[in-house]
């Protein structure tokens, strides 16, 4: 552990988080889209998520509107607060960008361990708690939206291949068709 005065520790802590958030976000924004086009083992829906039902129980639809959308921080970012289209191509892009945002928030958590270098053990744990509290809700929102949009996209494709047939909705979770 590096020993610093309380003042320097406070200044470094206050400056470190915005630098971490902005630099990691900028890095992820510029990652090649190919990393986010397909569902890999991490992005795939898990059984415990109960087709998104777990997020319904958490009330994500109610509280996700009050959190900020960082998609507009940098030029070229993808805002997800409001839909800008309803085409299958737009939904595919939206789904891809939920993966990018989820990845961004996921990799913002491990840097919290760096705070143990110049902070006391207690403050180090507070920084880890901060990283979890600030990033996990956004990870949850991205998963919630992605699974909904994947179902919507599947229904759109089914309607295109079987005209005249109405796609069956399985739950109240399926009935929501816009992110906010």
List strands and helices in order, with pairings.
Layout: H1 6-29, H2 53-57, H3 60-63, H4 88-107, H5 121-161, H6 172-175
Protein name: Glycosyl-4,4'-diaponeurosporenoate acyltransferase
Membrane topology: Single-pass membrane protein
Subcellular location: Cell membrane
Helix count from the secondary structure assignment: 6
Radius of gyration: 19 Å
Give the overall pLDDT as a whole number. Answer: 87
Query: Biggest β-sheet, characterized?
Result: none
Which class best fits the helix and strand makeup? mainly alpha
Count of beta strands: 0
The SSE order reads HHHHHH
Beta fraction: under 5%
Proportion of residues in helical segments: 40-55%
Query: Gap between N and C termini, in Å?
Result: 45 Å
Describe the protein in words.
- By secondary structure, this protein is mostly helical.
- The protein has one domain (6-175).
- Helices cover 54% and strands 0% of the residues.
- The protein contains 6 helices and no strands.
- The protein is elongated.
- The model is unreliable at 169-180 (pLDDT under 50).
